[in-house]
Design brief:
The structure holds three protein chains of three kinds. Chain B is an alpha/beta fold. Helix content of chain B is about 30%, strand content about 20%. The chains are: A mainly alpha, B alpha/beta, C alpha/beta.
Amino acid sequence: MFRLILQRLLALAPLLFIVSVLTFSFTSLLPSDPVDLILGDTGTEEQHEMLRERMGLNEPIHVRYLQWLGRALQGDLGSSYFNSVSVMDAVMQRLPVTLSLTAVSAFIAIVVGVAAGVAAALHPRSWVDRFATLGATFGQAIPNFWFGLILVAIFAVSLRWFPATGFTPITVSPWEWLRSVILPSIALGTSSSAAIARQVRSAMVGVLQQDYVRAARAQGLSARRVLFKHALTNAMIPVVAVLSFQITVLLGGALIVEQVFAINGLGTLAIAAVRQQDIPMLQGLVLVMVGLVVAVQLATDVIYGLLNPKARPT
Amino acid sequence: MTTRPLLEITDLSVTYWGRSLLGLQGKPFFAVKGANLAIRAGETLGLVGESGSGKSSIANTVLGLVPASSGSIRFGDHDLVAMKTRYPSEVRNQIQAVFQDPYSSLNPSMTVEDIVTEPLRVHTNMNKAERRKRAVELLNLVSLQEEHLARHPHQFSGGQRQRIAIASALALRPKLIVLDEPVSALDVSTQNQIINLLYERRDALGIAYLLIAHDLALVHHISDRIAVMYLGYIVEEGPSDRVYKNPAHPYTKALLDAVPLLDPDRQRARRASRKLQPAQDTQRVADVGCPYKNRCPMVMPRCQTETPPEYPVAGGGVANCFLLAPEVGVTHATKPFRQEPIPT
Amino acid sequence: MTVGNAESAGAVGKPWRINASNVLVGVAVSILALLVFLAVFADVIAPYDPLRQNLINSLQGPSARHWLGTDDLGRDVLSRLIYGCRIAVIAAAEATAIAVALGVPIGLFIGYRGGWWDWVVMRIVEAIVSIPGIMVAIVIIAILGPGLHRAMIALGILFSTSFLRLARGVVLAEREEIYVRSARVIGATDSRILFRHIFPNIAPPLIVQVTLTVGAVLLSEAGLSFIGLGVQPPQASWGTMLNTAAAFMQLNWFLSIPPGIAIILTVLSVNLLGDVLRDSIGRGIAAAAPEGRTATFEPSRSAASPAARPETLENEVLRVEGLDVMVGSDPGLPIITDLSFSIAQGETLGLVGESGSGKTMTGLAILGLMGAGLRITRGSIVLDGIDLRCLASAEIEKLRGDEVAMVFQDPTTSLNPAFTVGSQIAEVLRAKQGLSQRQAWERAVALIERVGIPQPEARAKAYPHELSGGMAQRIAIARALSCNPSLLIADEPTTALDVTVQQEILDLFRDLQDEFGMAILFITHDLAVAADICDRISVMYAGEMVEMAGVDTLFHDPKHPYTAGLLSAMPHASDRNPPLPTIRGNVPRPGAWPAGCRFSNRCDFAVATCKQPIALTGGERLVRCVRADQLDLRPGT
């Protein structure tokens, strides 16, 4: 188990390195000079030069990268060009919001997706299968933010079951927290649950044709046991392999869905940052998100290794 | 007997490299070690072995699909190992291949005409009409007709596909064709059709074959010489009849004895003489000693530490077994009584 | 964002859509055609200028003048929707084209080249994919600035990663195909192999990926415009319309409906089209009829033929009588016809035949595990005096393992890769015999030892992929015998093994039979293997039994020309040089069986009467040939 985690961690190291290089290097791709952004048209030539010197912009690019990386590893992602707020503080303050949305929607997506996929695979061509397949097709075609709008109109505005906007931290009230994230999470999780359902169905249909399923049946093991023990364990292997990808999709979707529900998460921060070309903020956002994704990836890799003996280190 | 062989493989080793954690080069794995083989023009050499014996690695190395790690392969006047895997046209067009699985060896998106004439497009300046004419000739050589030209591979049975593959291999009038398990994917009742076809074409066109197979009996039918491989080593080599009827290496004997006989009486007698075997670890043993030492019923102490060299065998050929060493003497049934020059 | 949902869902089964696919494709294509039509002729069709404001008439519901109402600035929603089509088409085309142009060549290149190029590019792709797609788009927009075309460049770059991976994946898969190896042997250059041999095979998945990308682009474009980073107001796009609608949700919720429906219908249409394309491509090759396949259905059996029945044996374990198996729905194709045989305790009956003879299906029919689409239409299967066809599936389930068990051809696929081999044997013992976990494990280890595996405790904890084929097959045999069944069905149990291992396994079968006394139905294509292991042999050809006899009788005095032909065609039958004896022609597939004697079109002894249905005749030995008494087919004569 420990070796498995270590192995996966090592495999993810190049990924983190490349993301950091990509994230850093996009500063130099930006059309505008950060000094011009901060000082605008005001300030003398000397003031510009002084700021440039102070920000270390005159150093060679690899030196700047290493300095930046060193600070980032210590948790210092710099401060916003616009309100001098520490990027780390700003991101950490909003993180629980986006994280709540992503986690709850991921939970919904996995539960609904796996259940629907298995049900459809068990009874091919039945009405369950048709319903699940049709639902999945629709689920993947509905824009999450539009679905959010409709959910608000029905369950918040008309029925008043849930708040239409806003977010309650879980530390304040778990119940209110759940009420505040349930609609956005449904809006967000629908398309992922559709995707997962399709994956589970096709994986399950494939596994059910395998020799070992037939062999287990030939041994007289009950259909239920063969299905849930022998088939599902193997069917989940390819599904788990792409699960972290689905969660990445959810994390990105959260940025948009937050807008529908006027929830102050990373999305609002990102939109403001891109409009202002606030480089440190964008860099910080990307790094934090990649950090999250890598953590999820590590978790799914380990689960994958547990499900699939062939993937374990020898 | 003094003419130089068409293909001469000397001390050939093939090594594959595993992949490490980060997808970089990892541990080495010896697929073939110190192999010596020779094929004369128009001759067929059967290369026999079980899975993992390295026989396909030799085939792939001769074809330039896999680089050799050491040793030499001489083809005519060309040193194939020195060319790495980039053979010039004049070598490529003389060495062709037919592979095992007729279902994946033909490109599903090409027509039969495309497949059969592809070598002509690559190596000749023939125009379309000339190529088509040659394609019809080639199809006739393998008992297919002109009307098959426009069809796609999936419209044919396994045996017919193998005929198409053979037609394509014959297109450039090669001197050597590597046949990698050419009939093992076919139904029993169609296997012999393909064997007969290969045999006829060889005699008519004077082609040499390197025939890779796991079945000694099948190889015996059309080979002039047979080489037997075990876990990366060639353990025996010699004239086809001699190897098949008088095997010298214990492994070759085991291989022959393991093939069930078609005669139930004789099979019963043979069965009575052998005893129940526990499961064997076929994992590769350390690179010291004889590769067969763990399964050999006649294993001797020196087999554990020394790798047996080639010893000449009565009736022709060589075998890598200490039982044939002159000093071992009478313990072995097929003890060489007449020294013969090694034919290569 | 549904970035890359493209990779989801395999081609396996969406069977219901096959029936409905024509209708759905029609609808989907019509919707997309309408979309393009509206986009092209928006200027002519739209009733109003989409940008003309009329603040007096703002936020109105649907009316005769404004079919879909007006927005906050009094602009006609229908007109804006129609102009939105134009944006949607431009967006989809632009982003998809960029994604294809960028992703496919790079993917082809690194896939074929491999090595460092591949490693570096793939790590970069992984890095991009690990950043949420919308964030990548946001960053690219930060560099390029907002606006439709820039946003589409951003999406194009983002989606190029899926095309890159697709192209690379296809190249990697095709590169291992033997036909690519053949092309290299021929001496085709790298670029020729890539473009002539590999590229044609990339087209089908590429088309599917394009449809999926179009759907994803539309959703993403709407999302980006919705948060104000895509199309900029006042230009009309479905995303910006929803942005407006969100702001006025409380005042006029209807504003959100038309653009939402437009997006859903469009994405649904492209996705449906993609699904149907994927399914039809998947079936294209598989379903293509092989040469010579004709739809000649013969009457399954002549009522006049006096079918011989196998004699009743002492200690009979299994008795199959008049079995018919069909595939497909009414009327279906016959796979097995009029099959009868019986096996006694401690006896081994060989079922010998080539591909398509129905021998494997016979084994599965006895177990009641034939799979979808196959059904027994006639006959009886009596095991230990119980007619299995009269039992409910739960009752057959009880018998499986206890009374009848099966060993499959490939031991590496018939053991579950996710569990240790010991636990797979123990599981059967616990489920069928109610042993405790510890008892079951101990018994499993004992069984593993019994089948000749050294160090059984350690081996029990191994996973199937850690064992050699021979060992895995011994494990499979141990599992099959764990509950001491009276019948063991062995389906080509040595075919996937090396010949020296095959001999060990055959000896093991015989040794176990001496101890356990089970009857064995041994299915094989190899007559020599059958000669070694079987007491009696039944030869099958094209779904029916053509001959059955004791093993000595059959080999010394075959009565059916097919049996004789098969015997002489075996590699060990002779040691002479070619030409070797052959049976002309090919094994016919189900549905292409000749009328009358199914071997008649390949038989050297066929006469006119062979065109009539032939009955199985005889007593202790059976043969299905009208000339059985006239022909002397003994080997060597």
